[in-house]
Structures are given as C-alpha cells and as structure tokens.
Automatic annotation (TrEMBL):
<protein>
    <submittedName>
        <fullName>NAD(P)-dependent oxidoreductase</fullName>
    </submittedName>
</protein>
<dbReference type="InterPro" id="IPR006115">
    <property type="entry name" value="6PGDH_NADP-bd"/>
</dbReference>
<keyword id="KW-0520">NAD</keyword>
<feature type="domain" description="3-hydroxyisobutyrate dehydrogenase-like NAD-binding">
    <location>
        <begin position="165"/>
        <end position="283"/>
    </location>
</feature>
<feature type="domain" description="6-phosphogluconate dehydrogenase NADP-binding">
    <location>
        <begin position="3"/>
        <end position="158"/>
    </location>
</feature>
<keyword id="KW-0560">Oxidoreductase</keyword>
<dbReference type="InterPro" id="IPR008927">
    <property type="entry name" value="6-PGluconate_DH-like_C_sf"/>
</dbReference>
<dbReference type="InterPro" id="IPR036291">
    <property type="entry name" value="NAD(P)-bd_dom_sf"/>
</dbReference>
<dbReference type="InterPro" id="IPR015815">
    <property type="entry name" value="HIBADH-related"/>
</dbReference>
<dbReference type="InterPro" id="IPR029154">
    <property type="entry name" value="HIBADH-like_NADP-bd"/>
</dbReference>
<dbReference type="Pfam" id="PF14833">
    <property type="entry name" value="NAD_binding_11"/>
</dbReference>
<dbReference type="Pfam" id="PF03446">
    <property type="entry name" value="NAD_binding_2"/>
</dbReference>
<dbReference type="InterPro" id="IPR051265">
    <property type="entry name" value="HIBADH-related_NP60_sf"/>
</dbReference>
<dbReference type="InterPro" id="IPR013328">
    <property type="entry name" value="6PGD_dom2"/>
</dbReference>
Length: 298
C-alpha cells in the first residue's frame, strides 16, 4: 500500500489517521504539537517535523487543520515541491470556499491537484468509519483518494464536481443546519419545561417519529443532559468560526440567513462569558437562560 502524508491530528484528525494506520497504509504524520501524535507512532506511523516532510513525490497528503490561516500556512511552496507533479493535497478542513478555490489554482500551477473533502462526523463517528465526506476537485484525483476517505472515516462519499469551493459550501450548509437544530431543540425543550411537562418524553416522541436521525438524537440528548462543557469534541470557538464563514459566504452571494445570525450571536455570548471547555452545543444555553431555566446540570 502506498505511503501517504497526514497533517493535523487534533480531535477529529487523530481517529482518521489512526484508522489509516490500522488499514495498513504507511502514514507520515506532521502535527504542530508533536506530543499529541506520539501514540500514533506506537501504532506504526512515522512522525515528521514539517508539512513537506510528510509528502512523497507524486503522492497524497491529507490535511485537517483548524481554519483558513492554518491550511494556507501548510500549503507552502516546499509542500507543493515535495508532492511534485501528480501529487494530491486533500484538504479536509472546514474553510472558506474562496480559500479553497485560491489554493486549488496555486496548487495546479505547480502540477499538484487540490481536492476538498471536508468531514461530516464527530470524532467517535470518524473512529467508527460511519462519517460522510463531500468532495470536489479534478475527477481522477477524486477517484484516487476515495479509498483513503473510506479507510479513514467515510461510510458515504458525495461528489460535488470540479469547483474546489463547492464541498466547502456544503460543509458550511451542514454545520449551519446543525447549529440551527441545536437552537430550535433548546427553544422547544424550554417550552416543554416551562409548560410543566417532561422534556424527555417529548424528546423520545419527536426524535423517533417526526425528527429521527443522529443530529436530533445526539444533540437533543446533550441538551437535555446539559452536557455543554468538558472535553468538547467540537468547541464553541470552532462553531463560531464556522458561523462566521457561513455569514461571510452568505454576504458574498446576497443570501439572507437570519437564523445563522442568531446562532452566531449565541456562540459569541458563550465565548464572551469565558465558559471554559464549551462544546458548541453550549449555544443552547442561550435559549434556556432566556426562558429563566437552569443551563447547568442539576
């Protein structure tokens, strides 16, 4: 099996890299904080000291980093030269569509293909390889990297064509809809509590009939349990970053998104209160507190 590079082993990148190692790939890993990747070395991965050292000529490098600045920072001339003609950089990060389009053009000038493949999965779903991938980029490059996505995290892969920004638009749409679902569930469960009914009965009825699916089941349970802080797998800060990108994209396309403004405001309020270790589910605290309800576990 071929040698691949992997850049960024955070909460989400770690289980994906681990799955690739377990699948038999030779994986060269760069992480800014080397210590966090040390357990992967024990599994057989090779740790390297720079993004370009993770690349092999004509090979594939997957990256999963925090934001636009981070993906731009690793996409250096040194990385592109290390990949060389026929190489592929797969960006799995949630970033601006325009950033991906600009990076795709820059990569192509040096003979390297840039494929966007943002991850739809929380870490536990990625570890179980039941996540979803959306991909965009050149057709042959996408065909080549699909087995890596399947081995790493993806149960399903959805192809959005050649525009490098399209997959990022869909990722932002998805994260916006999850954030909106958290807000609407918080408001609905607040109504149940204020009406002196058991919100857990409402949760069971609604999430097994009208609103089935992992978003309503998983996040609904977190809201009922007031599970808003402590080792977040997707932080409020990253959620705010994504809502900022949603609204940036909405402004550039003249798309009114008032619900996105509300979700952004909820997340801003969480961070303004300096709530430590907040998962982005903590945005539900706003609706609960507005209704005069306790937003911490009893």
């Amino acid at each position: 099996m071929e040698t691949i590079g992997f850049i960024g082993t955070g909460h989400l990148g770690y289980p994906i890299a681990e799955n690739l190692v377990k699948a038999g790939y030779t994986v060269k890993i760069y992480n800014r904080t080397r210590e966090k990747a040390l357990p992967l070395e024990l599994l057989g991965a090779e740790l390297v000291d720079s993004p370009e050292a993770a690349a092999v000529k004509g090979g594939v490098v997957l990256s999963l980093v925090a934001d636009d600045k981070a993906v731009e920072a690793i996409s250096t001339d040194a990385l592109l030269q290390a990949l060389g003609s026929g190489g592929i950089h797969v960006s799995m990060s949630t970033v601006s569509p325009d950033t991906s389009r600009a990076l795709a053009a820059r990569h192509r000038r040096q003979g390297v293909e840039f494929v966007t493949a943002p991850v739809f999965a929380r870490p536990e779903a990625a570890a179980a390889r039941v996540g979803n991938a959306v991909i965009s980029g050149e057709a042959a490059a996408k065909d080549r990297i699909k087995p890596l996505l399947e081995a790493g995290f993806a149960k399903n892969i959805f192809d959005l064509g050649v525009d490098a920004g399209s997959a990022n638009v869909l990722k932002l749409m998805g994260n916006f809809m999850i954030g909106a679902a958290i807000e609407l569930m918080a408001e609905a469960f607040a109504l149940a509590e204020k009406s002196h009914m058991d919100p857990r009965v409402a949760y069971e009825m609604l999430t097994t009939t009208l609103f089935p699916g992992p978003v309503f089941r998983n996040y609904g349970a977190m809201i009922l349990d007031r599970k808003f802080t402590g080792s977040p797998s997707f932080s409020a800060a990253l959620g705010l970053k994504d809502m900022d990108l949603v609204l940036q994209t909405a402004r550039s396309t003249y798309t009114p998104m008032p619900m996105a403004n509300l979700v952004q405001a909820r997340l801003t309020s969480i961070l303004a209160k300096d709530i430590h270790d907040a998962d982005w589910t903590a945005l539900a605290m706003g609706a609960l507190e507005d209704a005069g309800l306790n937003s911490v576990p009893e």
